[in-house]
Amino acid sequence: MTYRYRTGEKDYSEYWRFMALLLLLISLSLGIALTVIAVLLAQELSVPRNVTDMSISTEPIVLSKCGLNLDDIDISESVNPTVFSDLTGPEFESINRYLFDQTDLNVTKITEARIDSSYVHLIELLLPNKAETLKHLDGKTDAPKRWAKVVLFRGDLSIPEVQEYKVGPLPTPTSHRLLNYTGRRINPIPFNVRPPTLVELLHLEKTIWVELFTKLGFIIYESFGILVTDCKDKCLSFSSAPVSTSNIGSIKRQIWVGFNFQTEYYKLHPIDLQVLLQLDGTDPSKFNMSTVWYNQQSFKSADDLIQMYSNDSISKLKTSFPSNQEKEFSTMTLRGDILEKESHRAPRQLEPDGKRYTVKHQKVGYLGWSFHYRMSTSTGPMLLDVQYRKNRIAYEISLQEIVVFYSASNPLNRFSDFVDSLVLLGYAAKALVPGGDCPQHATFLPARHQTSSEPTSIVYKNAFCLFEQSTGVPLRRHHSYTSSHGSFYSGMMDDVLILRTILTIGNYDYIFDFIFHQNGVLEVKGISTGYIITSVYSPAEEKYGFRLQERVLGNIHHHMFNFKIDIDVSGNENRFETLDINVYEADNTDWSTNPETSTYHQIMFNRTLKSTELEAAYTFNFDAPKYLIFHNENSTDKYGNPRAYRISLLGMSKQTLPIGRGAEPSISWSRYQMAVTKRHEHEQSSSSMYAVFDALDPVVNFQDFLDDNETIVDQDLVAWITMGVHHIPHTEDLPVTPTTGGHLSFFLSPYNYFPEDPSMASRSAVRIDLSGTSAESPVNISRYGLDTDIRCVPESTDAYDEAIREDKNLLFSDF
Fold first, then answer.
1. Residue 345, domain member (yes or no)
2. Helix/strand/coil (H, E, C) string of 547-561?
3. pLDDT of residue 814
4. CA-closest candidate to residue 751, choices 575, 498, 612, 497
5. 15 HSE (CA, 13 A, CB side)
C-alpha cells in the first residue's frame, strides 16, 4: 500500500479501494466456505486439514467416505459351504441333535453336566482328505463330503476316557466313529490329561474352595486383609499351573493354584499363598489339597500350616490390598507427561477408491493372490489353498501350538509350563477393536465355535480383521541420478494385504499376521504383548528375574510358536534342498606374484538334496549358513533353474531345556527351527490340546514324525517351523509388554519361480525420468494411470463405539 501527500495530509482513496476489494473477497470466501460446511454437515463429514487451496475452482469440494464400494465383501455364512468352510450354524444344530439321539454316547447337556457325565468339549470341522480335495479343486470331481470332529469327555464310563469322533456326513449326520490316528501313541486318551473345563471349575468351587477358605480364612484375613465370606471390593483371584505328568511320574492330575489381589491387573499383584490340588478321577469329593505354600515355606497340608501358624512357629505375612486401585502401576489408563498436543491425532491410512480385495464367505482375492481362511477352534488361524497368479503355493499354512515356559523358585511359577492349546487356540480369538487392534478401514470377519463353555455354537463377530495398508517401506526402488547412469527414478511402496487375528490366552495376547506382498512373497508374523506373570519378590527369586515393584518380580520365560506349512510348489511332489554357503579358497596366481596372496578366499554355495526326514531336521548354525529351498524337480525355468520357493526364518529361538526331561517331550517340535516330513493324513498336527499334561507319554509325539525317517524326495512335503523368544521382564514391561522388538516372522518367497519380479505388473509404482540430456529437457512423471487426487475421508470409530455401547458382548463375555 502506498501513501500520496496533499498539503501535508495522507490520501486514503487507494486505501479504501483496497479495503473494499478485500471485503468483497472475504465475502466471497465466506460464501464458499459456508457452502462447503453445509455440504459437509449434510454428509456428517469433516474436512481434512490439508485441504487449503480453494482458488483452483469456485465449485465446493465435496468429500465422501473412502472405501464405500462394498459389493465385493460378503462375510456371511454360506448356505453351500465349501470343503474349507468352518461349520455353519445349521450344521452345528444338526450335529447336536444327532449326538443327543445316540444312546451309546450318553451325551448330557453341558448345563447339566458333571465330571462323571459324558459331555461335548469340542465340535469343529474335520478337514477332508487332501488327495480328494485337490481333485475337486482342480475340477475333476465333486466336493468331498463334509464331516465334523467331536471331542467327548466320557466321565460316565467305568474307566473314564476322552474320545474323539468323526461325525457326519453334513449337513445331516447319520454316523459316528472313533478317530483312530495311527500317529497317536495313546488311543483312547487318558481322562486325567483332558484340558480343564468350566464343569470341573464349578466342582472345585463347591468342594476344595470351601475347604480352603473355611480352614485358612483367618490366615488369609490376618495376612492379606481379605474376608473370604464377604470380600466386597477387596477380593482374591486365582492363577493355575497344570503339572505335567512327567514331573509326577504317573498319569495323575495335579494343578498348582496361586492367589492374587483382584484388581487391574491381577497377575501383577500376587500374594504368597499357593496350594497343590489332586484332581484324579470323576468324584469331586475325593479331590484334595496335598501341599500348601505360604510365605516362602511349604507345608504338607492346610492343617500343618494352621498348626504352625497358630503356634507362632513360622514367620507370618502382613500384606495390604492395593489402596488406590485406579492409580496402581498395573492399570492401563492414561498417565504421565502426555506426549501429544490435545488436538493432534495420529496419521491414518485410507482406501481412496475402495477396497482392492474381495471376500466371498471365507475366500479372499487380492491382486493375484487367493486363499481360503478359517479359524480352527483347537489350533487357531489357518490358510488353505494359497495361490498366487493361479499357482498353488501351499495347501495349508496354520498355527499349531503356542507355549510359554516359566522359571521360578516358588512352585506355581516353576511349574508354569503352559502348552496353550489346552484353552483351544481359535476359541481365544474373541474381539478385535478398530483403531486399537486393526485400522478403522479393516473388514472384520467372524468365527463360530462350540466348546464345553456354552450349550450351543457361538459367533465372535470380530475374530479376524482384513485390511490393506502401506508398510511405509519401498518394495523396490532405484535412483539413477546422473545422465551417464540413465537419469531416472523408479520405485514402489510395499502395499500389502494383512489377515490378522489376536489370541488372548490368560494374561498374554498373541498377534498373528498373514501378510501378502505384491511380489509373490507371503510373510507370517507372530508378536507377543499383554501382561507378564509375576512372583512375590524374595531373594530366592532373584536368579529368575528383576524386581519390578516393591513386592513384585518378573519371571524369565520362553515363548514359542509352531506353524505348519503344507507346501505345494508346482504340484505336490516336491524336494527339499539347501544351498549351503561355504568359504572357497580360489587360485589367485594369475593376478598376484606374491606367495602370500597366491590364494583368495571368497564364498560359494553347494546344492544339497535332503533325502530323509532326519536328514532334513534343521537347527540353525552360524558356521553353516544356508538357504532352505522347496521345488518340483520337473519344473524349471528356461535356464534349467528349479522354479522354487524359499523359506526364510527370522524368528528363530533355541529350546535350551534337556531333551526328554520335564515337560519337554510334549513339545518335541521345539527341538528344531524347521523340520520337513512326508505328509500323512494321520500327522495332521504337531501338538494336541492334551499336551500340557501328557509329557510322560504324549498323545501326539512330534519326534515320532521324524524317527520313522521316511524318504522325502519327490514327495508331498510339510515344513514345521518354530519361532520363539526368551523374555526377561524389565520395568518398561509395566503395565504390559510392548510389541516393539518382539516381531517374529518367516517368509515364503519365490526363488527362480518367475522370470522377473512379478510386482513389475503393479500400477502402484512411480517412474520419473528426463526426455533428454540437456538442462532444458522436460521431466516425465508416470503413475501408470492412477489418479493422485484424493477427495475422501477415512472411516471413523464412531460406528464401533456406538455398537459396543449397544451390545457389550462384542467385547466382553459376561452378558
1. no
2. ECCCCEEEECEEEEE
3. 67
4. 575
5. 6
Beta bridge partners of 364: 359, 371
Closest-CA residue to 487 (of 782, 765, 773): 773
Q: Which is it for the CA torsion 128, 129, 132, 134, positive or negative?
A: positive
User: SS3 for 107?
Assistant: strand
pLDDT (0 to 100) of residue 657: 92
Return d(Cα 436, Cα 428) in angstroms, integer: 18
> In terms of domains, do 453 and 565 share one?
yes
Asked if 397 and 272 sit in the same domain, the reply is no
Q: Rounded distance, CA 400 to CA 1, Å? A: 77
How distant, in Å, are the alpha carbons of 253, 414, 695, 696 from that of 247? 11, 11, 9, 8
Nearest-10 Cα torsion for 657, 658, 662, 664 = 70
Same domain? 37 vs 78: no
Query: What pLDDT, on the 0 to 100 scale, is given for residue 63?
Result: 67
- In a domain? residue 265: yes
Q: Is the same domain home to 562 and 611?
A: yes
Pairwise CA distance, residues 171 & 88, whole Å = 9
User: In this structure, which long-range contacts are made by residues 334-339, counting pairs with CB atoms below 8 Å and at least 24 apart in sequence?
Assistant: none
Cell of 74: 460378503
Distance CA 445, CA 497 (A): 14
pLDDT of 204: 84
Q: For strand 73-74 and strand 443-451, is the pairing parallel, antiparallel, or unpaired? A: unpaired
Q: Which pLDDT score is estimated for 485?
A: 85
| Cα(45)–Cα(60) distance, integer angstroms | 14
CATH code of the domain in which 383 resides: 2.70.98.20
- Domain termination site, one of 295, 320, 345: 320
State the total domains in the chain: 4
**What's the pTM?**
0.90
Whether residue 403 lies inside any domain: the answer is yes
Q: Say what the pLDDT of residue 57 is.
A: 42
d(CA 351, CA 64): 12
CA gyration radius, the chain = 32
Say yes or no: 121 and 218 in one domain. Answer: no
First to last CA, the chain: 71
Domain span at 23: 5-62
Query: Is the separation of the CB atoms in 451 and 377 below 8 Å?
Result: yes
pLDDT for residue 15: 41
Residue with cell 465435496: 62
Question: Which residues of the chain carry a pLDDT beneath 50?
Answer: 1-58
Q: What contacts 779, CB < 8 A, 6 or more positions away?
A: 768, 769, 770, 771
- Residue 213, pLDDT score: 86
Same domain, 94 and 48: no
pLDDT for the residue numbered 515 = 98
Whether the CB-CB separation of 63 and 43 falls below 8 Å is answered with yes
Residue 451 lies in a domain: yes
Residues known to be catalytic: 420, 508
Burial of residue 173 (CB within 10 Å: 0-12, 13-18, 19+) is buried
